[in-house]
Amino acid sequence: MALSVSVIQRGKSGVATYIFGLLDGFRQLGWPVEITLIGLEEDRPLFEPWLGPCEWLGVPERWRHAAANILWHQTALKVSLRRMGADVLHIPSYRRIVYRPPCPQIVTVHDCAPFRFPGKYDALRMAYGRKVVVPLARRADAVMAVSRTTAADIETYFGIPADTVTITPNGIDHERFSPAMAAQQLSRLPVPAGLKSPWWIYVARLEHPAKNHLRLVQAFERLCERQGPAAGQLVLAGADWHGSDVIRQAVAVSPVRDRIFLTGFVLLEDLPGWYGGARALVFPSLFEGFGIPPLEAMACGTPVLCPGDGALGEVTAGAALVFDPLDPLSIAGAMERLMIESGLAEDLSQRGLEHAAAFNWRATAVRTLEVIRSVAKVSDSPRPGKSGQ
C-alpha cells in the first residue's frame, strides 16, 4: 500500500496524529500490509520510528505549499505509483484525492469543514473543497470516516450513502496518555513563569473563528468575576493558524490577561503533563469531525467540558460536562459547576477513564486493514460506475 503523508503540516495537525496513530496500530498488528510512505523530505525524521518496516519515497520540498502539493498528487504521484506497482493508494486527507490513479484508492475523511463552517479557510481552499473534491470523492474505491457524524455529512454534501462509508474512529496512545504518565510528565513540564497548577486548558491550534477561543476567553473573564483568584488560570495550547492574531489581540486586551497563557505548539511528549496539571480540558470548538484531545485528556484522568452535539457529543458520549459553545455564560457556568459541585470532578474523571479505554489505534488499524484487503481484491476488476466518467 502507498500512503501519502505529505499533508501533516510538519507534524502539527490532526491528520499527522491520525497517520502516526495508524502506523502505530499497524505495528501492533505485526505489519500485516507492506507500506510505502510518500512524504516531503524535511518530514522524514518524523517517521523514523516506522522506517524499518515501512519504505520511504521522498518528495522534493518545492511541493509543500498546498496548491503545489495538490498538483503533485495529480501528476508526479501517479508516475510514482506506476513505477512501484502499488496495489492500493491511501489518501488520509480528502483534499488530496487523486483523479484516475493507476490503482484502487482509499480516502479518509476527517470532517466536511468547507461545507459546515463557512469562512474556516481562505476562499480558494473553500472553493476547492466544495467544488473539486466532491466529484473526486465519488470516484474513490472506498471512503472511510472517523465518526458517524462525518459519515452523515459525507452523505449530505458528497452524495455518498452513509451506509457505504466505513466508520474508522480515531484512537489514542494509552501508553502515553494515562494518569501515571500525566503525573510523571507534569513533574518535568517546562511551565511558563507565573503559571501554577491546576489550570484550565484548551488544546487546539489558534484558529479563529472555528476553534471558538474568543468565547472561551469571555467565559474565563466571567468566571474570574464570580470566583476571583479561585478561578485560577487559563492555558491556550496550540500553534498559530488562520485568525490567530484575533485571538492574541483578545487576550492582550482582556482584563484578566495576566491569567491567560499561550504556550504555542505543545510537543506530543509534553501533552500528558499539560492534561495532568489541568483542572479540566475546556474544548469549545464550533466544529469537529472527531475530536482527539478530549479523549486524550480523559485517558489522563482529566475532566472534560465540551459541546454535547455533533462529533464531540458522539465521541465523548456522556462522559463530559456539556455546554453551549455559542454562549460564554454557558461555558463559564460549566466551569463554575466543576469548581463548586462536590464530587463532580471525580465523577467526570472516572467516567472519562472508562470511556477513553475503548479507543485505541490498533482497532483503527484493524478496520483500515479490512478496507485495504477489500479494495485490493477488486484491483484487477472494472470499478462499478467509474467507466466513462
Protein described:
There is one protein chain. Helix 12 links the parallel strand 12 and strand 13. It is globular, with a radius of gyration of 21 Å. Helix 8 crosses helix 13 (328-340). The protein has helices at residues 14-28, 66-74, 76-84, 113-116, 123-139, 148-158, 179-186, 213-227, 244-252, 271-276, 292-299, 310-316, 328-340, 344-356, 361-377; strands at 2-4, 36-40, 55-59, 89-91, 105-109, 142-145, 166-167, 199-203, 234-237, 260-264, 278-282, 304-307, 321-323. By secondary structure, the chain is of the alpha/beta class. Residues 378-389 have low confidence and may be disordered. It is built from 15 helices and 13 strands.
Summarize the helix and strand pattern as letters.
EHEEHHEEHHEHEHEHEHEHEHEHEHHH
Proportion in β-strands: 5-15%
Number of separate helices: 15
Low-confidence stretches: 378-389
Query: What is the number of strand segments?
Result: 13
Radius of gyration, in Å, reads: 21 Å
Helical content (DSSP H or I, runs of 4+): 40-55%
Strands in their spatial order, largest beta sheet:
3-2-1-4-5-6-7
N-to-C CA distance: 25 Å
Class by alpha and beta content:
alpha/beta
**What is the residue-mean pLDDT, rounded to a whole number?**
93
Q: What summary fits the major beta sheet?
A: 7 strands, parallel
Q: Give the CA-based shape.
A: globular
In short:
The protein has about 400 residues and is α/β, with parallel strands linked by helices. The protein has 15 helices and 13 strands.
